[in-house]
Specification:
This protein has 440 residues and is an alpha/beta fold. It has three domains: 130 residues, 3-Layer(aba) Sandwich (Rossmann fold); 118 residues, Serine Threonine Protein Phosphatase 5, Tetratricopeptide repeat; 119 residues, DNA Cyclobutane Dipyrimidine Photolyase, subunit A, domain 3 (Orthogonal Bundle), CATH 1.10.579.10. It has 18 helices and five strands. The chain has a five-stranded parallel β-sheet. The chain starts with a strand and ends in a 20-residue tail after the last helix. The mean pLDDT is 93. The chain binds flavin-adenine dinucleotide. Flavin-adenine dinucleotide binds next to α9, α11, α14 and α16.
Length: 440
């Protein structure tokens, strides 16, 4: 008798879900999602990992998953607590012999698995590649080679075959546990205790993801992608796949196949090819993160070079809430806070300003993005921040975006600034002049 626990993480879908298919080779199947209370408490950068936008998207995604599983007479049990404890309790309660989950790329998630393996040596743990194009045992480069450069990876990855996507299962083993009525514990902060009833910019879940991908590839947008992807605003200017990809509502292999199908039907141009390049960037950061472990969060980064920056609390507040002396950055930061989304160019501008104009420790900026972004991904976020701070894999050693030039290129008419930061007058960077400080 095999009883399997499928620990769901960034794989909230039925379509092309090799972990679900693997977990279903079982007599009984218990699907579990853990909401970790640590996500909601401020960590060392004084902000919690989970913010309202991603939390709402996550709740919607879980609701949608439960609706889909219901048609297969299954459900996902949503547990609130430390995963290493919750899972161990469920494993004992339901005589679980095998745990299946998606491959984890972040150190915290890997620590949960290590803790379970230590505590329960008899338990069989299987990590499955559901989140990436490639599988760990068939990568285009070895893990240590990811340190060389993105270009090295890309040249080898672009023609490397990926496994074919799998169909959604048509039946699943039954669960050993009843589905309880869901309610969120009182320990959650107030903003997180309310149910997700506002649709937000993105609707969470596999159903919304599939509809969005269908609509995107039915439009003329993919054919223009490369020319408009750097625009600061506009739904159609980039794919907006990231929130669904990163909660696993959408399979990245299925997405790559949709790009290929579009090219087959409409012909290839540099734009369609560029969507695949961006998916490869995402891929690159995952394997790099797995190789780096805790180095991904290190001030000196991979480069091992400490930037000449520090922490100024006042500047940090001004950047987070969009009241710096830089109007374009203010508009970016306000859009991020209001919507949970910011274009790639907006993220680059805001991050570059944080490090270069404000002279701030890049990790505080990365932590604020982590809190705000609906599409937050540990590998992509911290990897991009390292890149901009000049401590990552970038052979050019950091990116400094000239704010005047960026404003002239992307917001010459001031439409973006007027939309997101209307009436914000220039403020000073520091209200306390160091010359006024008492000496001796
Ligand atoms: C400082 C900083 C932090 C970032 N943090 C995140 C994050 O937490 N999560 C996240 O998904 N992206 C992050 N990005 C990358 C990028 O900004 C977003 O992926 C993109 O804006 C999402 O919008 P889209 O889906 O319309 O992208 P598109 O331009 O349509 O790209 C298609 C897909 O390719 C991938 N992609 C695009 N740009 C990048 C990139 N620079 N690096 C890696 N993958 C990319 C994404 O999966 C995206 O969905 C960050 C970029 C910077 C500069």
């Amino acid at each position: 008798m095999i009883n399997t626990l499928y620990w769901m993480t960034h794989d909230l879908r039925l379509d092309d879900n090799p972990a679900l298919v693997r977990a279903a080779w079982s007599n009984r199947l218990l699907c579990v999602y853990c909401v970790d209370p640590r996500w909601f408490s401020a960590h060392r950068y004084h902000v919690s990992s989970m913010g309202p936008h991603r939390w709402q998207f996550l709740q919607q995604s879980l609701d949608n998953l439960n609706m889909q599983l219901k048609s297969l007479k299954q459900h996902v049990l949503i547990e609130f607590g430390y995963p290493e404890q919750q899972l161990a309790t469920l494993i004992a309660r339901h005589q679980i012999t095998r745990l299946v989950c998606s491959r984890q790329f972040g150190v915290d998630e890997k620590a949960v698995l290590a803790s379970l393996a230590k505590r329960l040596p008899e338990l069989r743990i299987e990590e499955v590649d559901t989140y990436t194009l490639f599988e760990l045992n068939d990568l285009p480069v070895s893990l240590p080679e990811t340190r060389k450069s993105w270009t090295y990876f890309r040249q080898r990855a672009q023609d490397h075959p990926m496994p074919l996507p799998l169909q959604a299962p048509t039946s699943l083993p039954t669960s050993p546990a009843e589905r309880p009525a869901q309610s969120w514990p009182a320990r959650l902060p107030e903003w997180a205790s309310v149910a997700a009833n506002d649709a937000g910019l993105f609707g969470g879940g596999e159903t919304a993801a599939q509809l969005h991908v269908q609509q995107y590839f039915a439009s003329a947008w993919p054919a223009q992608y490369k020319h408009v992807r750097n625009e600061l605003d506009g739904w159609e200017n980039s794919t907006k796949f990231s929130p669904w990809l990163n909660r696993g509502c959408l399979s990245v292999r299925r997405t790559k196949m949709a790009v290929d199908a579009y090219i087959k039907q409409h012909g290839s141009n540099e734009s369609t090819g560029w969507i695949t390049v961006e998916l490869l960037w995402r891929e690159y950061f995952q394997w790099l993160a797995l190789e780096l472990g805790t180095q991904l969060f290190r001030f000196k980064g991979i480069a091992g070079r400490a930037p000449l920056t520090c922490v100024h609390p006042e500047r940090y507040q001004k950047w987070c809430h969009g009241t710096t002396p830089f109007p374009l950055v203010n508009a970016c930061m306000r859009q991020l806070k209001q919507t949970g989304y910011l274009s790639n160019r907006g993220r680059q501008i805001a991050a570059s300003c944080f490090v270069n104009e404000l002279g701030m420790d890049w990790r505080y900026g990365a932590a604020w993005f982590e809190h705000q972004l609906t599409d937050y991904d540990v590998a992509v976020n911290w990897g991009n921040w390292q890149y901009i701070a000049g401590v990552g894999v970038d052979p050019r050693g950091g990116r400094h975006f000239d704010l005047d030039k960026q404003t002239a290129m992307y917001d010459a008419e001031g439409v973006y600034r007027a939309k997101w930061a209307p009436g914000i007058t220039d403020s000073v960077l520091d209200s306390v002049d160091a010359a006024d400080w008492p000496i001796g």
